[in-house]
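Amino Acid Chain and Its Fold in Token Form
===========================================
Scope: a single protein chain, as residues and as a discrete description of its fold.
Amino acid sequence: labelled as such and written in the usual single-letter residue code.
Position: the record begins directly beneath this header, with no further notes in between.
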Amino acid sequence: MIFRSELYAQRPVNEIEITEHIADTSKQRDLIDIGKEILKIKPPQSVDSTGKKFYFSFLPFSTNVPGGGHALITSTTAGFYLGERNSTYMSKVTFTPYTNFGKRFGLPIRSYVWLKDNTWVIDGDIRLLKYPHETWE
């Protein structure tokens, strides 16, 4: 008798990967680096965001849908900290409404909220969808 077993594994969707930044010490240079040095071009200073507790983004776009027609999709995301940055992961709430300018639309809200000091995580998924179609004739 032959026994067959298969195992599948994946990382959870909302798992936060812990990484450490390692500085590049190779001192590689290319033509762009040499040009910047000759022309004395310096990159702009990066913005220090260590004091912020709230982040926001908005992205609207349109696309063609299978079977013809167009769709409008917007994605609005808010990221925030409910505790100190060094002891609490960033929480996020995403609202992604969409329509095909016909009878279909969707109003999904997804959230992943970390409470202070990562004591609890609240995972939410609320959707209001309208996909009308005939099932029987």
Residues 31-38 form the longest helix (8 residues). The chain has one helix and six strands.
